[in-house]
Design a protein that fits this description.
mainly alpha, 5% strand, globular
Length: 80
């Protein structure tokens, strides 16, 4: 039987880096700004720390579990 974690899709999520000078709503920027200035998971994995802010129920925990599994499958450990 397939578990929900095994049925996950690769979403190719994009992230916006928050900067104090950006006063526009990040949701509006992401909808109308295209991919310009966005970060991929591969970008985030190069950083020592990141903070992910999103609505409850948007899949943050599930996505982190998926990314952790992908890193483990690739033989990569956090911080290496």
């Amino acid at each position: 039987m397939t578990t929900p974690d095994e049925m996950s899709l690769d979403l190719d999520r994009r992230f916006l880096e928050w900067r104090k000078e950006h006063d526009a709503d990040p949701e509006v920027r992401s909808r109308f700004g295209g991919d310009h200035g966005t970060l991929k998971w591969s970008d985030l994995l190069q950083r020592r720390r990141v903070v992910i802010l999103a609505e409850g129920g948007s899949g943050k925990s599930t996505e982190f579990k998926r990314q952790a599994q992908l890193q483990a499958d690739a033989g990569k450990m956090p911080g290496t």
